[in-house]
């Protein structure tokens, strides 16, 4: 279902509850403190313009005492500015990292819930590709830039209100004589600054409207390039063994060329903005003096008031130019927000699909049964295509069953039992309090110490090192005993055979009631695979074992075959 809310409303629904979270008192206190410090910054800015007017009046009057007095005031302004600015920085950065941390934890929790990180990869990736980049980079930009933009907008509105009054008072009332008619205008400097800012904003928006599309395209390609690099690093051993470096280099450079294309697109957009901002900055510097000097020349205002009007004019224009000045930042922020929302919405839609109660839902539940029961189970593809026959069977505790996987539906049956594959029909009943363990073709070995990697997903404190050393010897991996304290990227350092032996060690450590072996020993020789199966059977006599294997020698280990 397409979410019809605007991206901003969707973002606030996702990230806004931070201010009502567990630490809401501290968060709200920091927010209020940030507002107070911003008000103090505006107060200092207003006072500086008044100080500037007083200083130039003293200079115009050639009063050394007046100049000396203003030096003393400047020292106080200097101290106050440092104090307020430093406190503002500290509070703002606490709010930035707090919001990012909260949202990161929320999205990661949603992403890692019940295998959703895997299931979402089976769907279209248009709106949720590269979740690593969306979580690591886009959440950072979405939260940090949201606070930066909100603060700068609030600051600009305060500045607009404060300096409009100053400029209005200095402008007084002037009469524009056009021979045939005379038009009296009050606050003419205010009207000039407003007109100038509106024209500049319209022109700036028109020249920079292509930046959003260019920024989105570049961030997407940057994320794709990072993903390709990570993918290459993760498969470096396989690439090296088959001498695929040339092809891989070509693939990576092609991915980088896509970045260059979007970089050129963004450069073109930046060029238009730069042309505008360069002319805009020069005009903004000269215009306030040119429009304010006639009143000084005729003696209506002092030199100090002229300089104060210049500063007030520039502050007003700066405040009114907030949309133009922040156009690129807004484009970057919106792009990152949409990428975060794409991932979150994809997970939400996946959740809705999985929990929608209809006839094409495979249910898995804990029940008061003695064995694993498959009741009218049928495996289907994500698109709904039937992949298996209707299965009615019961696997008893300690039974060894060979799964016939000619249609490649066996692995999906294992995923269904583990709660990761809801597509299909029927019901799977699992004995209450029984633990399940799926052995994939290669075990996941995190880049920690080998001891911690073997213990995964439990903490290393759950097992005794002597126990692991004995099991390593039992599976014939004596040389790994001395490497238990070593930290490394084990998927790269160990051969496929060694990794599969470690998979056996991990199972023997966790001692599950139900074990699902998915081609997890196929890298071993036929004799070694049989030996490992017999070791598992002897050490775990009450464990029900279901196996998918392509080794004919392993068939004798099993008591029967389950056809799917």
Distance between the termini: 34 Å
Quaternary state, please?
Answer: single chain
Strand line-up of the largest beta sheet: 8-9-10-6-11
| The top level CATH class name of the largest domain | Mainly Alpha
Number of helices in the DSSP assignment:
18
Estimate percent helicity: 55-70%
* Number of DSSP strand runs: 11
- Beta-strand share of residues: 5-15%
**Global shape:** elongated
Rg measurement, Å: 34 Å
Structural class: alpha/beta
N-to-C SSE string, H for helix and E for strand: HHHHHEEHHHHHHHEEEEHEEHHHHEHEE
* Average pLDDT number: 86
Low-pLDDT parts are none
Gross CATH architecture of the largest domain:
Up-down Bundle
Topology:
Layout: H1 7-15, H2 24-60, H3 64-111, H4 116-119, H5 131-171, E1 173-177, E2 182-186, H6 188-208, H7 211-234, H8 236-241, H9 245-297, H10 303-320, H11 322-325, H12 327-355, E3 363-367, E4 372-379, E5 391-395, E6 400-404, H13 410-417, E7 424-431, E8 436-439, H14 450-455, H15 465-474, H16 490-493, H17 496-510, E9 514-518, H18 526-539, E10 544-548, E11 560-563
Parallel strand pairs: 3-7, 6-10, 6-11, 8-9, 9-10
Antiparallel strand pairs: 1-2, 4-5, 4-7
Helix pairs in contact: 1-12, 2-3, 2-5, 2-10, 3-5, 5-10, 5-12, 6-9, 6-10, 7-9, 7-12, 9-10, 15-17
Subcellular location: Cell membrane
Protein name: ABC-type transport system, permease and ATPase component
Organism: Methyloglobulus morosus KoM1
């Amino acid at each position: 279902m397409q979410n019809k809310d605007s991206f901003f409303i969707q973002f606030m629904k996702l990230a806004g509850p931070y201010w009502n979270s567990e630490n809401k008192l501290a968060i709200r206190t920091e927010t209020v403190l940030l507002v107070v410090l911003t008000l103090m910054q505006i107060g200092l800015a207003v006072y500086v313009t008044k100080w500037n007017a007083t200083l130039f009046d003293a200079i115009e009057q050639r009063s050394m005492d007046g100049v000396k007095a203003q030096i003393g005031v400047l020292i106080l302004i200097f101290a106050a500015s440092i104090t307020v600015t430093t406190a503002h920085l500290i509070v703002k950065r606490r709010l930035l990292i707090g919001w990012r941390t909260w949202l990161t934890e929320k999205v990661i929790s949603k992403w890692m819930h019940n295998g959703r990180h895997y299931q979402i990869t089976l769907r279209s990736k248009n709106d949720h590709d590269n979740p690593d980049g969306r979580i690591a980079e886009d959440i950072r930009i979405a939260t940090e830039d949201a606070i930066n933009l909100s603060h700068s907008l609030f600051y600009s509105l305060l500045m607009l209100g404060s300096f409009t009054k100053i400029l209005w008072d200095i402008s007084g009332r002037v009469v524009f004589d056009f021979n045939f008619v005379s038009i009296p205008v009050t606050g003419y400097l205010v009207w000039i600054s407003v007109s100038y800012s509106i024209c500049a904003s319209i022109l700036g928006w028109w020249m920079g409207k292509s930046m959003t599309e260019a920024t989105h395209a570049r961030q997407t390609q940057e994320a794709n390039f990072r993903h390709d690099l990570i993918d290459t690093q993760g498969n470096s051993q396989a690439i090296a063994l088959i001498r695929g470096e040339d092809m891989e280099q070509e693939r990576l450079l092609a991915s980088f060329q896509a970045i260059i294309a979007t970089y050129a697109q963004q450069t073109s957009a930046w060029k238009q903005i730069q042309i505008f901002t360069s002319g805009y900055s020069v005009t903004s510097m000269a215009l306030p003096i040119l429009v304010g000097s006639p009143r000084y020349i005729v003696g209506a205002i002092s030199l100090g008031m002229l300089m104060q009007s210049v500063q007030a004019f520039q502050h007003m224009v700066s405040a009114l130019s907030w949309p133009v000045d922040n156009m690129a930042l807004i484009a970057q922020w919106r792009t990152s927000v949409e990428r975060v929302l794409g991932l979150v919405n994809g997970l939400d839609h996946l959740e809705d699909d999985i929990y929608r109660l209809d006839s094409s839902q495979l249910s898995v539940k804990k029940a008061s049964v003695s064995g694993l029961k498959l009741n009218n189970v049928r495996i289907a593809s994500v698109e709904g295509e039937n992949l298996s026959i209707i299965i009615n069977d019961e696997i008893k505790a300690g039974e060894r069953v060979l799964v016939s996987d000619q249609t490649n539906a066996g692995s999906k049956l294992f995923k269904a039992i583990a709660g990761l594959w809801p597509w299909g029909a029927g019901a799977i009943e699992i004995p209450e309090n029984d633990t399940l363990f799926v052995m994939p073709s290669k075990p996941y070995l995190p880049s920690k110490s080998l001891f911690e990697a073997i213990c995964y997903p439990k903490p290393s404190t759950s097992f005794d090192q002597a126990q692991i050393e004995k099991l390593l010897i039992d599976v014939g991996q004596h040389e790994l005993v001395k490497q238990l304290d070593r930290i490394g990227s084990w998927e790269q350092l160990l051969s496929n055979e060694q990794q599969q032996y470690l998979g056996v060690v991990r199972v023997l450590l966790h001692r599950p009631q139900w074990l699902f072996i998915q081609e997890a020993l196929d890298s071993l020789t036929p004799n070694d695979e049989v030996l490992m199966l017999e070791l598992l059977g002897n050490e775990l006599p009450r464990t029900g074992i279901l196996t998918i294997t392509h080794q004919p020698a392993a068939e004798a280990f099993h008591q029967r075959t389950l056809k799917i």
